[in-house]
Amino acid sequence: MKKVKSGGLRLEYRREELGLGVRGKYLEDYRKGTNLVLLRPDVARVFPTEEAVNNALRSLMNIAQRTVSSSKRPNGRASARR
Predict the structure, then answer these.
(1) What is the mean pLDDT of residues 40-54?
(2) Half-sphere exposure of 53 (CA within 13 A, CB side)
(3) What is the dihedral angle through the alpha carbons of 65, 66, 71, 74, rounded to the nearest 10 degrees?
(4) Which of 72, 47, 48, 78 lies closest to 60 in space, CA to CA?
(5) For 62-76, how does the pLDDT look when each residue is reduced to its tens digit (9 = 90+)?
(6) Among positive and negative, which fits the CA dihedral 65, 67, 73, 79?
């Protein structure tokens, strides 16, 4: 009686069953340092393109930098008020 293949992983594989490997297949992508970020559907509707997302994030970065730099007080006066 023949065993039926279950579609799961086997305990052992033969090298010839795996096919030819390709050396460095993903090397260029690795060197680019690409990131994949999944957006929720509601965010994707507002920012449908990569450019739109990047522009929005750059704007947020600029606002955050201006806010942090304008909130610093010289001469430690902020701590003296407490």
Answers:
(1) 95
(2) 12
(3) 90
(4) 47
(5) 999 998 877 666 665
(6) negative
